[in-house]
Amino acid sequence: MSNEIVLDVSELExxxxxxxxxxxxxxLLPGQYLRMLHRRxxxxxxxxxxxxxxxxxxxxxxxxxxxxxIWADNDHxxxxxxxxxxxxxx
Length: 90
Fold this sequence. Notes:
The chain has a single domain, classed as 2-Layer Sandwich (Translation Initiation Factor IF3). The protein is α+β, with helices and mostly antiparallel strands. 36% of the residues lie in helices and 28% in strands.
């Protein structure tokens, strides 16, 4: 089983990116994280993630404008996997 679930919402119109991302986050299994790809910063997403006990990290994407990594608040395995990506140069 892969730890990463990729969700590309870069071609979708609001509110689909928000709805699909929240639905996908709710389906994460222990150890999994979501890599959401978007064409712009999804500012409406962050409060929803906070309210639903998810952690996230945003960075400039390689194939999209923005990548947002999302994982469950107490999921140390998923947090470590995201941290490894963040710490990898390039």
